[in-house]
Amino acid sequence: MKNISVIIPAWNEEVTISEVIRKAFNSKLTKEVLVIDDDSTDNTVSVALLSGACVIGSAEKGKGISMQEGVRLATGDYLVFLDADIPTYPEDIVDLMANPLMEGNIDFVKSCFDRQAGRVTELLAKPLLDIYFPELNQFSQPLSGIVSGKRSFLENIVFENDYGVDIGLLIDMYQANARIAEVNIGYVENKMKPLQSLGNMAKEVTRAIMNRAEADTTYHAVPHQSVIGGLRAELNPALKHKVVVFDMDRTILSDSFIQTAARHFGFEKALRKIALEYVNPVIRTKEIAKLMKGHTIAEIIEVLDMIPITPDFEQTVQALKQRGCIIGIVSDSYSLVTNHLMHRFQLDFTMANDLEFWRGNTTGEVKIPSAFFRHHEAKCKHDYCKSHVISYVSAALGLTLDEIMVIGDGENDMCMVQKAGLGFSFCASHPALELVADVVLRERSFEPMLAYVE
Fold first, then answer.
1. What pTM value is reported for the model?
2. Domains of the chain, with CATH numbers?
3. Are the C-beta atoms of 220 and 297 separated by less than 8 Å?
4. Which residues pair with 184 in a beta bridge?
């Protein structure tokens, strides 16, 4: 019968290590528990030995080295890695992490748990994964260190030896064509990283991702129809309007992203010239993207963070989610920006234009998702229009347009506001929008729209 080696990297965890080891031995399939000690100065080693674990001193400091040594020394067919500072694991933690492997159709398991993902995850790791490894953003906590895998896969991995170890391992397993699953292990408590360590953590996580990114040009990811379709299970059939779509510029944000970027980066005059010269929205979009050439992800997010959010947006999102709505952003801005907002406010999807990147910098090129273009079932005659995205989303979710609610402010929102089952004009920057909207909101508050969610 296949068996399990549990590997626990540890450093100065005398208070919690005994409970972690006890739970590791709870599984009937646990063959051995290996504590890889990172030169602890407290009683971690003696407590671990008394608890029945095999203790090995790490040859070099660092969690990654300890994990690598655990893989080398383990004799089990399946390896489960546990953090030593979490005494609140469920009693069956090893079985939870190993069962998908034992069933034979999974090679690597990433854990998630009932705690909001941290700041580095939401503001850095997930946006970078959106760009370079979009297939991995399905994992809610990509920096989680509680993982398991087949030894045959793990023994071929070179582990990072810093904060990048966990995200690096996830990407390495993906690039090795491992079949990966995510398992929710319930509620856990562990030590929060001190504020002063977050800077180093951010740098090391970034380095781990970028070192693994392909050396060629990468596009920012957009949600494919299958991904949006995966939200079907979350639809509330009792709601008349099941999906709520927000415009971004001057709706969620108090100002336009590109105009704020123009002021910050100094291309206001060039932006005005493009707006006057190019009527075709596709050509205009591509010309504007050229003005963004050379800027880094961090610089773009810095501009976004300058723009105030409509004050009650977060509360409105929470209220909509409590009622069972699917919430997304459709914007003719950039998906790097909309996805950052999606992660920050826990939205369900976004659709926007994809800036092209080369080694972390924008190239000045942009990819417009096909969902923005007219198709044979389109309700709008424009060749390029945000209303086509609404049709795309409704089709992916198996809904009609009548089941979608849209909120926008400008001329480019008119068609999607008009075509949706319920369209809101929000502090309209173009007077014609109010003529086609079902509801007109002239104050910067989303609260009145909640009365229409039923």
1. 0.59
2. 4-212 (3.90.550.10), 225-452 (3.40.50.1000)
3. no
4. 112
